[in-house]
Amino acid sequence: MPETPLWTPNAEHAASCNMTRFMRFVDARLGTGLSDYRALHSFSVENREAFWSAIWDFCEVVGDKGERILEDDRMPGARFFPDARLNFAENLLKRSDEADALVFRGEDKAEARMSWAELHALVSRLQRYLRDQGIGVGDRVAAVMPNRPEAIAAMLAATSLGAIWSSCSPDFGERGILDRFGQIEPSVLIVCDGYWYAGKQIAVAEKLARVTEALPSVKAVVVVPYLGQAEAVAGVIPKAVTLSAAIAAHEAGPIAFERLPFSHPLYILFSSGTTGVPKCIVHSAGGTLLQHVKEHTLHADIRPGDRVFYFTTLGWMMWNWLASGLAVQATLLLYDGSPFHPGGNVLFDYADAEKMTLFGTSAKFIDALKKAELRPRDTHDLSSVRLMASTGSPLAAESFDYVYDAIKPDIHLASMSGGTDIVACFVLGNPLIPVWRGEIQGPALAMDVAVWDDDGRPVGAGIKGELVCTKAFPSMPIEFWNDPGGEKYNAAYFERFAGVWCHGDFAEWTEHGGMIIHGRSDATLNPGGVRIGTAEIYAQVEQMPEVVEAIAIGQQWDSDVRVVLFVRLAEGVALDEDLEKRIKTQVRTGASPRHVPARIVPVADIPRTKSGKITELAVRDVVHGREVKNKEALANPEALDLFRDIEALRS
Description:
Elements lengths: L10 H6 L1 H13 L6 H10 L1 H11 L4 E2 L5 E2 L7 E2 L4 E2 L1 H5 L7 E7 L3 E6 H17 L7 E5 L4 H12 L3 E5 L5 H11 L3 E5 L2 E3 L2 E3 L2 H9 L6 E5 L5 H7 L3 E3 H5 L12 E2 L3 E6 L9 E5 H15 L7 E4 L6 H7 L7 E6 L9 H9 L3 E5 H9 L4 H4 L7 E5 L5 H11 L4 E4 L1 E3 L4 E5 L13 E2 L5 E4 L11 E6 L9 E2 L6 H7 L7 E9 L5 E6 L13 H8 L5 E11 L2 E10 L7 H14 L8 E4 L13 H8 L28
Parallel strand pairs: 5-18, 7-8, 7-9, 9-12, 12-13, 17-18, 17-19, 19-20, 20-21, 31-32
Antiparallel strand pairs: 1-4, 2-3, 4-14, 5-6, 10-11, 15-16, 16-27, 22-23, 23-24, 25-26, 26-28, 28-29, 30-31
């Protein structure tokens, strides 16, 4: 580990950032004398009522705050701002001027931009249309959409009325859509007429027609144009009209915002696991809003007028996170399609053209750039980009090196971890402290994050254990849909340690106060009874140019567990004795002898979820001859067949 950080905020940056401004705000209000982030974090955890009240005021939340901040402080069951009334969409539509609110690129096929005034106009017309369809408080509006401006507008129109929004991307299969929306019974569907991916038109009309027929709750379908085929597609789907037809009778005007309790349902997000029908996770308007404005304003240091990008689809919670950038009056840069079409520089072209300030992506994308040997710093300006954020899976130490060497040497690189379950982060970036190689900078404000051993005792730096949060926070789910007794909800987070959120990540504090995530707890390996995080293995083997990506599982063998590593190799590379030896040496020297796989097996593809995460549990089930219950959660379910009845795993 290097003795110097990869990035340190300069004095001017530290003095002017929103985090410092917030410390001064809290000090002026409460006389706290806060001098650094460690003190601020301690204050935020020990004084959560004062902290969240200050966030409401500092971030200028629109609504009635009420007197009480936290009632019944327990998990689950805590109630934040029990007297408050607010509307989520109202907080995202504070501006109505002619500046850009939304900018869109669909590979090299489409470009669009929408001003704040135009966004207001479209939201108002969509709101009137939805009201005509009988949509009101608590009704569900669902979308099967690319990451286009119309999706943001439809979400805002629905939530302005107090309806609940849910979405997935158009690459979901019919069964995957029905497994989600069939549970929540939406009244209106917002869909596209198709989409582009890797330069190809992808048709969706027949799939969406079957989906609509299988959802008796749907009263109306709105088809948004992308490929110029909206009228033809609307003619195929039952109960469908084009977007232009839907809003034709409605003039733009003031938007009526339904102010509702803080805990009113806003979003239904879905777990992406392959162990059964997805869990429907219900998030509150107030909890989502406060967590996001905290993270955007303080941790990401986003200011009004900044231009914020995150590579995401509507099937990943990062789309919901990105949308909240409107609440801090940032311009959102939307992208849909392949991030490598027509080439690996397409997103960096976008960054330069639109003066992007926050470049958000995944660890897998950064690793793919590294393997492609691209050097954006040599081909692009990128002077506007202050922050690069990464999430989705652990960011390997070598990827940190790559970013600072090949993308931008003075950028703030913020690895983040949290997830769909909390629609926010437990650990993430921080503009006040250094970035150390391979580490997430530290815990989020007001999140009492800890690492515990199997007996529920906190452990110190360098010891791996379970990631937990020991105190309540506003973005805990309200409930799971159709879980009236809360049994599934409690089992998901509170069964391991009573009254403490157990997130299911295998984690480790560092000596700098940062964190390393070693993978999901349920995917950890246990050879000889010692827990090993899969991310530790990937970090080693994926450095090798011969290995495109890898997936590791524990195979039950001879009354123990042995580590099996599957590798997808670069084109033209074969797994011979020499390469197998070098892989094992790399793992042994870079991680430990216990991490060395007992078997290494080449495969042509690796299964992953719609949000791009590899699926160790599904592969483990296939290897052991067990059924994978929810293949529709996968982007490439056919890849599972590659792991059946492998000769090398029979001895």
